[in-house]
Each structure stands twice: as structure tokens, then as C-alpha cells.
Protein: RsmB/NOP family class I SAM-dependent RNA methyltransferase
Organism: Fusibacter ferrireducens
Amino acid sequence: MKIKLGTEFEAFLASYDTPVYTGLRVNTLKISVEDFLEIFPYPLEPIEWTEDGFYYREEDPVTKHPLFYAGLYYIQEPSAMSPVTVLNPQSGDKILDLCAAPGGKSLQIASFTKDSGLLVTNDINDKRVKAIVRNVEKYGVKNVLILNDDQHTIARVLPHYFDRILIDAPCSGEGMFKKDSKAVKAWASYANETCAKMQREILEVVPDLVKENTELVYSTCTFSEVENEAQMLYLEALDAGFKKQYVTSDFFDVKNGVAHLWPHLIKGEGHFIGSMIYQNGACNEAVGIGNNDQCVERKNSRHFVKPQRQDEKKGSNRVKKDRNARAEIVNEMPTVLKSFSEQYLNQVLSGTFMIEREKIYLLPEQEVDIKGLHVARYGWLLGEIKRDKFVPSQAFAMGLCMADFKNVANLPASSVQVLKFLKGETLDYDEVNAYGTLTKGFCLFCTEGYPLGFIKVEQGLIKNLYPISWRMM
Ligand SMILES: C[S@@+](CC[C@H](N)C(=O)[O-])C[C@H]1O[C@@H](n2cnc3c(N)ncnc32)[C@H](O)[C@@H]1O
């Protein structure tokens, strides 16, 4: 680092004695930043490089607040909010977040696209995929396919499919040494060359994932050149179609078109961001980022743009079924859901439904072929069929707006009943009833106008349906 940073080294070193910056990102799928700032009780300071990110004070118990349980904000290290701002996802895009767990950047992508198009979010580690599922449910993301696959499988099943790809690569974590002492220890076993090899193996399949004009962001939280700049060069060398997109930023140290986030220069931890566009055709002046030398066909180019798949018809609602999953795909709302919907919902759910092992899902708008993929979640889990009745899921509650449901109890975040709900305790009928009209059956339990989950009213009693694994400790 001394060689790399020269005169800045002392400042870099001193940055390790300053406190870690703690950040949260507002979930704009559920609430606007303005509305959030009105109801959030603790002081916040904007993070310069993203409109929905804020620093909070470490001493404030932000992860204990009911609004956190309502999925109104996600705790994210400030620098980690930057790669998605460079990727700049657009509404309707088909996006792959290849190394996604626990899912912070996937949630940010969904905020950018307003949960439109299709977000394919993947991680190779099955335990960590569970965290993506939880976060996707909590933050109300619906147009999503969550996978637990390796890069080869995804490239084989969904070749040349994506408009944008984020590779937030597994890395030696040097940039996180201040925040996480475990990262220092882990470095011993995940040193730069070990990680660089892993990264090359991931990047190797990228030529099979991209199509013309696919934009890609490669990010890490390390300072190591073999894991950063060298990997960008590796990708360029794999296929002449990859052209560097010059990252521009008012906030970060940008050299040769890639961005370094240095902990002594910004209020955040160490990060690296590089960006590429895939253009196998003639060099496109309009992109405004290319150097002439980038247009030269490389001799070692080994990939060709394969024709787009026949079934890639935009806007189609048809979804192919995974033969192994024994799933039934239906365009009509299943009967059990229909009667639930008539009794409880203020608006009709429409789209394509999937019934798989008694579970009912509303599938993403965007057609996708999932045959051969290891799917952890496909679309929005609405609920389960139990004894010929529909029982709504926690994910269903979290994907609704308060106005969508007929029976609602909406309590202030300061209410003891909200705390009891989140702890899975018995609720007081009269106290809850004071904030809604409790009628027999399911009721959406909300705080400050945002759903937390379901309760069920039976014979003057309230059954708390908040799942055990979601409860506040
Ligand atoms: C830096 S973390 C990702 C953090 C995540 N993007 C976020 O913002 O929450 C890197 C992840 O890559 C995953 N990973 C490692 N090798 C992988 C591979 N070959 N394919 C997919 N994921 C992989 C790890 O399990 C790890 O969860």
C-alpha cells in the first residue's frame, strides 16, 4: 500500500483509527426518500454518491426499529452503494447479479428498475442464498428469480440473455479490514492470488452471458491490482467485444476509467469499480467512452455473438415450466386464491401464477426459461394451499401496500403492541382494535402505514402469525 499510495500512505493508515461509517439505504419500492425522512426518528446525513443512502449514528438502534422490520431501509456499507449507481439499471432491463448474497445490491437494483423487467439474483453458496430470499421477501421485490447456481449453469441455461450484469466478486476483502476484523483473518486463507483465480473462473463465462450492448460492472472491496485492474484486462482479453466503459465520478478516485474508493478520501470503506460494454459490432462512437485501440479486433477473441434465442420475446407472459420442479403454470388465478382475494383484497392480482408443492407464486412479468436451473425463489410467494384454503405468506404481506388489504390494523411504531407482534407475543385485542376494525379472519398488521405481517382474528382473540424466523430477539 505504501508503494501504491506514496505520500498518501500516512493518511490511508490514519483512516483505520477513525470510526466505521454506518449507512442505510431507503427502500424506494416501499416509500419515497422524502416520506421516509419524515417518519424516521434518528438523525441522518446524506451519502453523496447515492440519493437514497444516508449515514446514521452508530449508537442509534436502527435495526431494532419497527420501520426496519417493515422493510423501509436496508443496512449497507456506504461504499457498497456505489457499484449499482455505476451499473445504472433501467426499467424493463433483464439483469443478472451473479454473486449476490446477502442481496444488498440486488435490492438496490430493484429500486432502480422499480421492480420491473427481471432481476436474476444468484449466489453459489446455498446458506447465503437463504439470506437473499429473506431480503427479497422483506423488501417486497417481486420480479425476481433467485438462483443457487454456479456461473457455468447460468451461462448454459440463459446464454446471451442479460441487458446488465453485476459481478460483485468474492475477493480478499482488504477494503473491509477496518469494518470487519474477520476479514483480516480471512485474508490469510483468501489471499490475492487465490481470489484472483476464483475471479477469473467467474469472468471466463461472461462472454456467454452477454449480448450486444450488455453493460457490465465488476466490483470488489479490495485494493489488490491482481483482483481489480488485472481482471478487467482479463475480461477484455477474453473477447474483443468487451469495451471499457469509463467510469466517471465526482466523488471517487478515477484513473484509467476505473474507480477506487479509498477510506482516507471518502466517508466509506475501500472499493473498486470497473465497467464494460459488450459491442461486437463496429466501434460505436456514440457511446463516447471508447479509445480507438479498443476497436481493434483482438487476435485471441474466441467468442461469437450467438443468435438470440427464439423464445426471447419481450413482453410475453408465457413462462416455461421446469420439468423437474413439478410446477403447474396457470394464467388464471387459482380458485382458492380467488376466494381469498374476493374476501380480503382491494385490487385483483393479475399475471401468471405457478403452483408448486401447494405453494402459489405470482411469476415475474418477464418470460424466462428456468429449465436446468437451481431455483431458490421464482417470483412472489403468495401463500400455501392448506385444507383447500389459501393461507397467505409473510412474503405476501411484505409485498402488499396497506391500501391493498381490506382488514387492516395500523399502529404507531411506538406502540407496545407493535413490539409484541415483532417478538411473536400475544396481542391485546382492545389495544389493536383501537387502530383498525378487527373482523374475523386475516388482518394486515401495519405500522405507520407499512405492513409488518398478518394476524388472524378468531373468537375475539388475535393470533399472531409473525413467523418465528423473522422475530425480533
Ligand atoms: C462480495 S460477496 C457479494 C455481496 C453482495 N453483492 C451484496 O451486495 O450483498 C461475494 C459473493 O460471491 C459468492 N460467490 C463466490 N463464488 C461464486 C461463484 N462462482 N458464483 C456465484 N457466486 C459466488 C459468495 O458466496 C459471496 O456471497
Summary: The pocket of S-adenosylmethionine is lined by residues 80, 98-105, 122-125, 128, 150-151, 168, 170, 202 (CB under 6 Å). The CA atoms of residues 140 and 399 lie 4 Å apart. DSSP finds 16 helices and 23 strands in the chain. Residues 323-365+381-398 form one domain.
